[in-house]
Amino acid sequence: MRNTYLPYGQQWLDEEDIQAVVNILKGNYLTTGPTIAKFEECVAKYVGSKYAVAFSNGTAALHGACFAAGIEKGDEVITTPITFAASANCVRYVGGTVVFADINEDSYNIDPLEIERKITSNTKAIIPVHFTGQPAQLDEIHAIAKKHNLIVIEDAAHALGAEYKGVKIGALSDMTMFSFHPVKHVTTGEGGVITTNNEFFYKKLLQFRSHGITRERSNLLKNDGPWYYDMQFLGFNFRMTDIQAALGISQLRKLDQFVARRREISQIYNEAFQNNECLFIPTQHVDGISSWHLYIIKLNLDKISVTRKEIFEALLAQNIGVNVHYIPVHTLSYYQELGYEEGSMPKAEELYEAIITLPLFPKMSNEDVEDVINSVIMELEKVKK
Ligand SMILES: *Cc1c(COP(=O)(O)O)cnc(C)c1O
Questions:
Q1: Using CA atoms, how far apart are residues 111 and 131, in angstroms rounded to an integer?
Q2: 13-18 average pLDDT score
Q3: Predicted confidence (pLDDT) per residue in 247-281, tens digit
Q4: 333 half-sphere exposure, CB direction, 13 A CA radius
Q5: Where does 209-252 have alpha helices with state H?
Q6: Is this prediction's pTM over 0.90?
Q7: 140/199 Cα distance (integer angstroms)
Q8: How many angstroms is it from 183 CA to the middle of ligand 1?
Q9: How many whole angstroms separate alpha carbon 369 and alpha carbon 348?
Q10: 78 has which bridge partners?
Q11: What pLDDT digit, counting tens, does each position of 219-228 carry?
Q12: 51 - beta bridge partners?
């Protein structure tokens, strides 16, 4: 057994990253200085979008995207139940109604056929999530969006560096969100971004993250003088600091290397587990190349004599930092109180009963990977039917 705890995810910072932050601390701007714009430029360049707007975190960025999309009370927005709560919560922040569409049992991503079934005259947007880093079926989703005149906001918190049909995720829909939380591909401590090719959304997002205030002269209804600004809607202070942006720029230099290592580790897991009857390895959709934010095994509950909980606890006891992604969002108390029913998303709920997330982060050594593999195989062997 390992004698140190191996977390499921962790950042990788080096001296260069630390120096980048120190340089900001020694300079004149701690926040909303020139480094934010540089970071935004780096992100936009990497994903191939025209614009990027940095936010204090990914959740705030999603909130901004829902606002920019004009979602409000009475509007319905379709998303997946197998995601972090923030993918749905952002709709609630602007007063909209969340409509869940069940997943595809192979990819674990939102099923376009289920989206189609949930469309009503009130549907305004779709928020697909590229779960674990595997791109959702964007062609099908865009076709539905076009047919019904809907806005698509990708929650790509797992998918920085992922590709759909040979193109990087980040400029394929109206808006795309990435998160820079420490477990994600690169980190700014806390941080998020919206990428877009749409100038209208871009300007709304900039204004939204800074109180709804504008200083753009051409945008003012009156102008008392050079000091004058206007607040035109109720925005927030959702700005990222230059300290974080500097860390982000430095981290982005290593992104491709990080993603390559994530893919390598996932491949080692796949090979070790592919013939194991007690579990299913993640399947990959032909149209996408995953950036492997998460590696999730699905237990074959017919072949083992215990539940997921026993396996989970046994792995934890061996210092393997397993996790579960995710508890279906519609089953959480807040959504239950809003009237969403357990049992309404059978595929998501069935998946939830059987999944375990294994440690996966670029800084893991090959020995760490072996420890995980050995523990999983050993625990499953014990309970095999
Ligand atoms: C991490 C994450 C978010 C939120 O990002 P934060 O930066 O933590 O606010 C949203 N959606 C998904 C799927 C995530 O994994």
A1: 12
A2: 98
A3: 999 999 999 999 999 999 999 999 999 999 999 99
A4: 0
A5: 242-252
A6: yes
A7: 25
A8: 10
A9: 28
A10: 99, 126
A11: 899 999 999 9
A12: 196
Q: How far is the CA of 86 from the centre of ligand 1 (A)?
A: 6
Pocket test for ligand 1, best of 84, 103, 184 (most atoms within 8 A of CB): 84
Hey, what domains does the chain have and what are their CATH numbers?
15-252 (3.40.640.10), 255-383 (3.90.1150.10)
- DSSP, collapsed to helix, strand or coil, labels residue 304 as strand
At residue 202, does pLDDT exceed 90?
yes
Q: Which element (helix H / strand E) includes 77?
A: strand 76-79
- What letter does residue 193 receive in the DSSP assignment? E
Residue 328 CA to ligand 1 center (angstroms) comes to: 15
Q: What is the mean pLDDT of the chain?
A: 97
Among 198, 133, 137, 148, residue whose Cα is nearest residue 357: 133
Which residues have C-beta within 8 Å of that of residue 299, sequence separation ≥ 6?
A: 278, 279, 280, 308, 311, 354, 355, 356, 380
What's the rounded Cα separation, in Å, for the pair 54 and 193?
4
Pocket perturbation via mutation, ligand 1, pick of 66, 87, 185 by most ligand atoms within 8 A of CB = 87
> What's the maximum distance between 2 C-alpha atoms anywhere in the chain?
79
User: Ligand 1 pocket: which residues have CB below 6 Å?
Assistant: 57-59, 83-84, 86-87, 129, 155, 157-158, 179, 181, 192
Residue nearest to atom 6 of ligand 1 (CA): 58
Name the DSSP class of 131.
Answer: G
- pLDDT tens-digit readout, 140-158: 999 999 999 999 999 999 9
CA distance 20 to 18: 5
Bridge partners of 297, per DSSP, are 356
pLDDT of 326-355, one tens digit each?
Answer: 999 999 999 999 999 999 999 999 999 999
**Is pLDDT above 90 for 196?**
yes
**What's the average model confidence in pLDDT over 230-234?**
97
**Residue located nearest, by CA, to atom 10 of ligand 1:** 86
The ligand 1 atom at the shortest distance from the C-alpha of residue 192 is 7
pLDDT at position 126, please? 98
Tokens of 90: 């952002």
